[in-house]
Design brief:
heterodimer, A: mainly alpha, Cytochrome Bc1 Complex, Chain D, domain 2, 12 helices, 43% helix, B: mainly alpha, three-stranded mixed beta sheet, two-stranded antiparallel ribbon, 71% helix
């Protein structure tokens, strides 16, 4: 009886030890907490880059996608002839310098989806502070380019925490009531197709009025998560920006809603 | 968040749990008198997180046991009633006896968890209580119903054992399951809320502004409910099988060995049978997590947790191999099974290749040095095996193979007598072949389409496998009607090594539950409530797999030691009653042998 009990004990403990050893022998990756930054007014570019690199590889969680190259562009490797991200960032969007493009890509990621990839990147301002976002911009600039982020950018962010530090990240100040202009200004056509305009990433606008009523469209624009994703687009749930309620005036919102409802 | 809000929320909860912890009310009132509540407490040596981790995990393992075993019990009792096979009835009662003790352990660990949360994470607990207070009242109320239904179910077993009374008793078992499931649904809402709070919530949202139902029936609630219900069945079956294995190995008579061999078979059948459908529930849960928040989904599958799924693949591989091994060894005691022996090696090859493919790493987090060492983002050769197309194909083929093992086991000693037996077998073969073809086709085609399309292919693969399983089972039931026996199953004539496979199964299931608990909780990273309430404690960083595995092993050991104690205690309360089936003309029919190594034997005629 003792021998049998010892055998059973050996099997049980051996199995537990095997799994413990196995889990301990693989690469150990801890999910770090993004460190709160205390950057002084005299912060140097090197300090910003170092903080950004730590965030990129750790608490920021960037490597989960941007370190693989399958879900999102691998920012640690050159992209063909255009080089590393620090080299190519200034050429991505006409009229936007590198740091504006990178900053806007971090806090409004669905505005600039690289062809061939899905719009899955979250708005990093939900999980990171403005200072942290700027250190990431500095780090990405340093990969093949010149670091232009400075303490002034951080100070501007602190003065306008809503994100108005750069032209690229500011909410549109337009007062236009022209529906097509509103769609373009708010980057709706980056993901939605209307006629021959726009990209076929999200549900098309072309016949949206035939599929959805006014209330649904208004709810979707104001709070995308409050309504069910369109059939066939479930995988994109959670990717539509949730900022239109603050970007648009009430009148502009109604112009867009009525315009879309008429698309049949 | 103000102190008064937290204090009153906690107070309401504690008032509701007065019967468990009356003194805590005083503690809370004292806090209110002192001033602002602290955010976190501390615990010696292992820290607050370690203490809560152990309490939560061990409580959850016991909870799975006390939810899984009643499902097992009413199933066994029903077979006993409707097939008039008293072995099943005794089996159900034997395990219900253990339930009575296990309930106490579950409640104790639940109380430990509540006390740890209120003292170590008071602000977070106050947040939860503010939103879920009503459901917490229902929760403790349901405990009363559940406990007293269990007492009635167990202590009324022999009193209500005949006729309509027996059906009423079975109804009590069903009621016990309903209460237990309701308790689980409520607790699941709290933990799933932590993962997927209503989308409109932000860190500035006051808890009292949150609509109860939107927090309760959140995005991941139902997928977790389904996953846990199935997992509890698996766990209950595995525990039953391990208990039987232990009794089998220590048995001193052939009758005892026969009884516990049969019990081990039934437990393993339930565990592996439910395990086959568990991955489908897992897909559903994973899909809902992705739909709720892409970032969370990516953190889970491709972020810092990407290696966790390799460990999970190894564990599930062990489950499939051990489960099939037990079946294959068990075929040695079935007359007629030898005709299937040549096929076992091929099934083993499929399973081993499946495990290897499933456990191939892919899309791991890599820094610049690691990328340079690998020569790219993926391994040049093995990278192709690690993608979801290959893994989905592997796991679906493993499920089909395991199901084939079951089918061969079931058919081993049967000789169908129906006229269309040969045609039926051919159709069954075709169903297997078609399912395998569909799985392989979409597995290969998945390499040539985009990720979003590829994800959709897994649905077709799953449907093909499920269709084959359902179709083959239905055919088999009809084919088995009136079938001739090739000989009685020689229960008890099972090599000892097969029983150790059952121990490996139960340890692996338990460890896997700990690992999946870590995964579910860990994907929130440094958030108590995802993107709503940040964890600012010293233990906010989610540990790597190595330290997490050590914690899981500690929890598993605590649980197994306690459950072994409960089994031993159960043996002290009442001797198990075994039933030995004899030919009707056997002179021992109707006798009872009261002194056979800690059990009682009833000699009954074969049905």
């Amino acid at each position: 009886m003792l021998a049998t009990n010892l055998k059973i004990l050996s099997v049980v403990l051996g199995t537990i030890l095997f799994y413990t050893y196995l889990a301990g022998s693989i690469p150990q990756v801890e999910s770090e907490v993004p460190a709160e930054l205390d950057l002084s007014a005299n912060v140097t570019a090197e300090e910003l880059v170092a903080a950004g690199e730590e965030l990129y590889a750790g608490g920021g969680g960037c490597l989960a996608c941007h370190g693989t190259g399958t879900r999102a562009p691998n920012l640690l490797e050159p992209d063909g002839a255009t080089g590393l991200i620090g080299e190519r960032c200034g050429q991505r969007v006409e009229g936007m310098v590198c740091k504006e493009y990178l900053h806007a890509s971090l806090i409004r990621p669905t505005d600039f989806v690289v062809p061939g990839f899905d719009p899955i990147m979250p708005d990093m301002s939900r999980t990171l502070s403005e200072s942290q976002v700027w250190t990431l911009v500095a780090y990405l600039e340093s990969l093949g380019g010149e670091v232009t982020v400075s303490s002034e950018d951080l100070a501007a962010s602190a003065a306008d925490p809503a994100g108005g530090a750069t032209a690229g990240s500011a909410a549109p100040a337009s007062t236009t009531m022209e529906p097509m202009a509103l769609l373009e200004e708010n980057q709706c056509l980056v993901c939605h197709q209307l006629g021959d305009q726009g990209a076929p990433i999200g549900p098309p606008f072309t016949d949206v009025g035939a599929r959805r009523d006014v209330d649904f469209i208004r709810s979707k624009v104001l709070d995308p998560a409050s309504v069910q994703p369109a059939e066939g687009y479930e995988a994109l749930a959670g990717t539509m920006p949730t900022t239109f309620g603050t970007q648009l005036s009430a009148a502009q919102l109604e112009v867009i809603v009525q315009f879309l409802a008429e698309q049949r | 968040m103000t102190f008064r809000r937290i204090g009153r929320g906690s107070l309401r909860l504690l008032l509701a749990t007065l019967f468990v912890a009356p003194f805590l009310t005083d503690v809370l009132l004292a806090q209110e008198a002192v001033g602002a509540v602290r955010e976190y407490g501390d615990f010696p040596v292992i820290g607050a997180r370690g203490a809560v981790w152990i309490a939560a995990q061990v409580h959850l393992l016991f909870a799975a046991f006390v939810l899984g075993v009643p499902m097992f019990a009413i199933g066994a009792e029903a077979i006993g009633i409707f097939k008039k096979d008293t072995r099943y009835d005794r089996l159900a009662k034997e395990f219900t006896r253990l339930l009575v003790i296990a309930y106490s352990a579950t409640a104790i660990w639940g109380a430990v968890l509540v006390f740890f949360l209120t003292t170590l994470y008071p602000a977070f607990w106050g947040h939860l209580a503010s939103i879920f207070e009503v459901s917490m009242w229902f929760y403790v109320g349901l405990f009363f119903f559940e406990s007293f239904t269990l007492y009635l179910y167990y202590y009324g077993w022999d009193r209500w054992k005949l006729g309509r009374a027996k059906l009423g008793h079975w109804g009590l078992g069903i009621l016990l399951n309903i209460w237990g499931t309701a308790v689980m649904l409520i607790a699941n809402s709290w933990l799933s809320y932590m993962m997927s709070p209503p989308a409109e919530m932000t860190p500035d949202t006051a808890p009292e502004m949150v609509q109860f139902w939107s927090a309760f029936a959140n995005a991941t609630w139902m997928p977790i409910n389904i996953h846990r219900i199935i997992a509890n069945v698996v766990f209950g079956g595995a525990i039953v099988a391990a208990y039987a294995a232990y009794r089998f190995l220590l048995a001193k008579s052939d009758e005892e060995r026969a009884h516990y061999d049969w019990m081990g078979y039934v437990g393993n059948l339930i565990a592996i049978g439910a395990l086959i459908v568990l991955p489908f529930a897992g897909y559903y849960l994973g899909r809902e997590i992705y739909e709720y928040n892409q970032q969370m989904g990516i953190t889970m599958m491709g972020g810092f947790m990407s290696w966790l799924w390799i460990i999970q693949a190894v564990l599930i591989g062990v489950l499939f191999l051990a489960g099939n091994y037990y079946l294959w060894v068990g075929m040695g005691r079935i007359p007629g099974a030898e005709r299937f022996t040549p096929y076992i090696k091929y099934m083993l090859v499929v399973l081993v290749i499946g495990v290897i493919v499933w456990a191939t790493p892919h899309t791991m987090i890599a820094d610049r040095d690691e990328l340079a060492a690998m020569g790219g983002t993926h391994h040049p050769f093995l990278g192709a095996l690690g993608v979801m197309s290959a893994k989905n194909t592997a796991v679906n083929l493993m499920i089909l193979t395991t199901f084939l093992s079951f089918l061969l086991y079931r058919r081993a000693n049967l000789r169908p007598t129906i006229a269309w037996a040969r045609s039926g077998t051919i159709v069954q073969g075709l169903l297997f072949a078609m399912a395998a073809a569909v799985v392989l086709f979409f597995g290969i085609y998945g390499y040539f389409v985009t990720a979003i399309v590829r994800i959709g292919f897994s649905v077709y693969q799953v449907l093909a496998v499920l269709t084959a399983i359902v179709g083959v089972v239905v055919l088999d039931v009809f084919m088995a009607r009136g079938a001739e026996s090739r000989g009685e199953i020689r229960w008890g004539q099972m090599p000892a090594r097969s029983q150790y496979a059952l121990f490996v199964l139960v340890v692996t299931f338990t460890w896997l539950m700990g690992l999946m608990g870590f995964a579910r909780s860990g994907i929130r990273q440094h958030w108590h409530v995802w993107e709503v309430m940040r964890d600012t404690s010293p233990w906010a960083a989610t540990p790597a797999l190595g330290p997490a595995a050590q914690m899981i092993s500690v929890c598993v050991l605590i649980f197994l030691v306690l459950i072994a104690f409960i089994f031993w205690l159960g043996g002290l309360i009442e001797k198990p009653q075994l039933v030995v089936r004899l030919r009707p003309d056997d002179p021992r029919v109707g006798e009872r042998d009261p002194a056979v190594h800690g059990s009682e034997l009833d000699f009954l005629p074969a049905d």
